[in-house]
Amino acid sequence: MNRFNGYHILSTDSFDKKSLLFLLDISQELKERLKSEGSLSLLKGKILATLFFEPSTRTRLSFETAMIRLGGQVITVEQGDSSSIKKGESLEDMSRVVSAYCDTIVMRHPEPYSVRKFSTNASVPVINAGDGTNQHPTQSLLDLFTIRSEKTKIDGLSIGFLGDLKNGRTVHSLIHILKKFDVTLTFISHNNLKLPETYIKNLTENGIKIKETENLEEAIKELDVLYVTRVQKERFTDESEYLKVKDKYHINNKLLTQAKKDLCILHPLPRLDEISTEVDTGPNAKYFNQAQNGLYIRMAILSLILGKYKKN
Ligand code: NCD
User: Fold this and answer.
1) At residue 67, does pLDDT exceed 80?
2) Full-model pTM
3) Which domain holds residue 34?
4) How confident is the model at residue 219 (pLDDT cuts 50, 70, 90)?
5) Of 121, 179, 258, 266, which is least surrounded by CB within 10 A?
6) With bands split at pLDDT 50, 70 and 90, how would you rate the model's confidence at 191?
7) CB 117 within 8 A of CB 148
8) Catalytic residue flag (residue 136)
């Protein structure tokens, strides 16, 4: 059953395991249909509006491509800042106005919970494409899709998170999804970039086995999946604090000799120096497949929230 029809996608907290697996299955099916048919017409006549108040490459392009591949069309404001927000319009007013022009809206904004605020006046489904340090739900759905595609399962895996666990919204969203599964989570970071206590508490309450460490060399030996993140420079108010933490971890081929042969390395991208490019051509690098999977997940999300998904 399609439980997504008409709903906003604002955070990952609300998904149950059944809906998550349903979404992965639809994404897999649309991936195969797209390969065999080139494009589909499930969203013919539908319009997506994209509103980005922060930079984006993958999220925006994969949403726009997903809409076009499904036969729909896209309207956009080039940079959120070139819209009437710049003149002082509130998010709530903008939401009323944009809803009247389209069938669904994808929005990214630097303020935590701003997309939720925007959605309160929207008369069409709104998708959060990243609200500050809070969440980035569709990234996490494509991360989950990639983990299942690469490891053929989710339950039983040992998954590590590395980098900026304090500010990384993709980490925050993915954690809320993974707590629905039987996984062991290891958090590896500089002491200043640790996962906020509320997440640790929530995971423990949900019975998830967790470890926290600064020692990547030791931790990497146990892992099936390593989710690497960039230190989120734009979230630092003091540049010297950023400089203290930015170079702590580097994944290279030498380090990978310590890891399981089939370790799956993921990264939401963009990558800075945290993964050496020599890793890209090896068997562990899955981050470019991961970026590609964004297209299939977003095709599934758009067709489901618009109630237009149909089996072939
Ligand atoms: C991420 C984001 O915007 O949070 N990028 C993305 O959407 N793939 C990660 C990041 O910017 O570091």
Assistant:
1) yes
2) 0.97
3) 12-136+293-305
4) very high
5) 258
6) very high
7) no
8) yes
Q: Are residues 186 and 55 in the same domain?
A: no
Evaluate whether residue 145 is within a structural domain: yes
* Residue 222 belongs to domain with CATH number: 3.40.50.1370
Q: Are residues 172 and 263 located together in one domain of the fold?
A: yes
Say if residue 187 is in the same domain as residue 287: yes
Give the full edge-to-edge strand order of the sheet including 158-162: 209-213, 184-188, 158-162, 225-228, 264-266
87, 261, 310, 311: the catalytic one is 87
Query: Which residue out of 59, 133, 170, 229 is catalytically annotated?
Result: 59
Q: Is the pLDDT of residue 85 over 90?
A: no
Residue 78 Cα, ligand 1 centroid: separation in angstroms?
Answer: 18
Taking phi first (over 0 means left), then psi (-120 to 50 degrees means alpha), and beta for anything else, what does residue 207 get? Answer: left
| Range of weakest confidence among 2-6, 84-88, 224-228, 305-309 | 84-88
Q: Is the CB of residue 268 below 6 angstroms from any atom belonging to ligand 1?
A: yes
Question: Does one domain contain both 100 and 210?
Answer: no
60 noted as active-site residue: no
Q: Report the DSSP beta bridge partners of residue 106.
A: 50, 127
124 and 158 both lie in a single domain: no
What is the spatial distance between Cα 121 and Cα 161, in angstroms, rounded to a whole number? 36
Residue 146 to residue 287: CA distance in whole angstroms: 9
144 and 262 in a common domain: yes
pLDDT at 42 over 80: yes
Q: Are residues 83 and 210 in the same domain?
A: no
Q: Is 58 known to be catalytic?
A: yes
What pLDDT digit, counting tens, does each position of 258-274 carry?
Answer: 999 999 999 999 999 99
* Residue 6 Ramachandran class (φ > 0 left, ψ -120 to 50 alpha, else beta): left
- Domain count of the chain? 2
CA separation for the pair 305, 165 (Å, rounded) = 30
